[in-house]
Design brief:
D-tyrosyl-trna(Tyr) Deacylase, Chain: A; 26% helix; single chain; Threonyl-tRNA_syn_edit_dom_arc; DTD-like_sf; globular; Threonyl-tRNA synthetase editing domain-containing protein
Amino acid sequence: MKMLMFDTGSFWFETFSKTLDHVDDIEREESFTDSAVVFIHVEAEDEPRKNKVVKSAVANLKWYLNKVNKKRIVLHSFAHLSSSKSSPEFAVEVILAIKDKLESKGFEPHTTAFGYFSEFSIHVRGESLAKVFKEI
């Protein structure tokens, strides 16, 4: 798994085009202020170690959220951080497991539309911790 974490002043997205036939047809537009945004890439080698990957991702995201003093986080599937890709079904399962665990720990997690290309706008703060990459 690869994660690119951002401390943002604002993040806006709108579904642009559907990339997976089996997902529901939706049109969705949302914006978030003062949140962390994480681009998550789930890799094929994550599939046999799901529990470890989810646990490590949650621990890293909790660390990051505490460092940037945020409760709100947007999890965005971004399959462009590696050439290795898990199945879409596994990727969404992992992202939703991360979301559930963060919520149970008192955070406010959100997800973007899975199975869609999205148009987005992001304002990332300038501090060094505003942009952090993590490989799990």
